[in-house]
Amino acid sequence: MNLFDVYPLFDIAIDKGLGCKVWDDKGQEYLDLYGGHAVISVGHAHPHYVEAISNQVAKLGFYSNSVQNPLQKELARRLGKACGYEDYQLFLINSGAEANENAMKLASFYNGRTRILSIEKAFHGRTSLAVEATANPKIIAPINANGHVTYLPINDIEAWKAEIEKDDVCACIIECIQGVGGIRMVEADFLQQLKTICEAHNTVLICDEIQCGYGRSGKFFAHQHLGVKPDMITVAKGICNGFPMGGVLISPKFTPIYGQLGTTFGGNHLGCAGALAVLDIIEQENLVDNAAKVGAYLIDALKQMQKENSHIVDVRGEGLMIGVELDIPYKEPRTRLIKEQHCFTGCSGTNVIRLLPPLCLSMDQAKDFIERFKAVI
User: Are residues 317 and 370 in the same domain?
Assistant: First the structure.
């Protein structure tokens, strides 16, 4: 049997990692400014994380959600304290798409509506309603194109207000910093007005923090830069540093009903142990502050490069979620970064290079990246 051919792949097999570096199977070292697509939050093979995962799987890796799991309760307590949402409820699942599916499903149970508002260029996942809320017709299969979603311009409050005032909108789902959409930023005034309008019309506000959350923006959640508390927050990627896990943080306004939501693997013992270790490391090593500090340096250095290099059109982002828009396709400089400078980065659209490193990226590693980037741009 062959693998189903899903992505074009670089001819590189990553064999091991440590911190913000990875090595291929030939022993070549790479600086990792990609973090496995923003998944590696506390660094590759962090010893505390490795110990927690190893000890838990040696004891009990999985059992059904039909019994008590104290690790789930501890994770909910710790996460609520870390992010400032101690009065919210936590539902644990397996991925970002699944988190968004369940958030929109719960919103529909809550107000009985079926229409979703999403931002143009949004990415919310590849399954069912999550892919329909993703503004990319190439990945929406006919069976998913059910007319549930209206895409609207980013930061255009009048367009959003006009739709919500029709009183048929179930939920608005927002990436406060768009990932696949090219590191485009939601403005505070827009989100604050949107929250007020949603409340007036019983529409649910969901913040998709799957890529921009968990400390990446320099605050625990990106929406916390904007002064709004959403009704639901979806998380995944950085929550367990590579182990498949997702979650929905749910406002007290939602009352759980047995059977509405469910999961087989979500919140399993092994995942909870890993997620608790991630919170330990984030807190003990001040990684949210580090993301803010090192990210600010990178943004300033890249903006200085912009003044000196005509190929850089724009630099945008918060913390360690940064987009560098070029006036040329990203393919050549990104490929040269990998092959010549041995540095991984992400990409978006046709001409945006995305930086999504582990939150433990050091200032020296950030300076190293700037020199490598200068060599190819």
Answer: yes
Q: For 59-107, how does the pLDDT look when each residue is reduced to its tens digit (9 = 90+)? A: 999 999 999 999 999 999 999 999 999 999 999 999 999 999 999 999 9
Orientation angle between helical segments 269-284 and 47-59, nearest 10 degrees:
160
| Euclidean distance between CA atoms 354 and 89, whole angstroms | 32
How many Å apart are CA 330 and CA 285, to the nearest integer?
Answer: 33
Per the structure, the count of domains in the chain is: 2
70 and 153, same structural domain? yes
- Are residues 269 and 62 in contact, defined by beta-carbon separation less than 8 angstroms? yes
Asked whether the beta carbons of 170 and 136 are under 8 A apart, the reply is no
**Max Cα–Cα distance, the chain, nearest Å:** 61
Q: Are residues 346 and 369 in the same domain?
A: yes
Q: Which regions of the chain does DSSP assign to beta strands (E)?
A: 14-18, 21-24, 29-32, 89-93, 115-119, 149-152, 169-174, 204-208, 232-235, 246-250, 312-318, 321-326, 343-344, 346-348, 352-355
What does the pLDDT read at residue 310?
82
Within 13 Å and on the Cβ side, how many CA atoms surround 314? 10
Domain boundary, last residue among 284, 306, 338? 284
Give residues with Cβ within 8 angstroms of 127, minimum separation 6: 97, 98, 101
Query: Which pair of structure tokens corresponds to residue 371?
Result: 């020199």
Does residue 302 belong to any structural domain of this protein?
A: yes
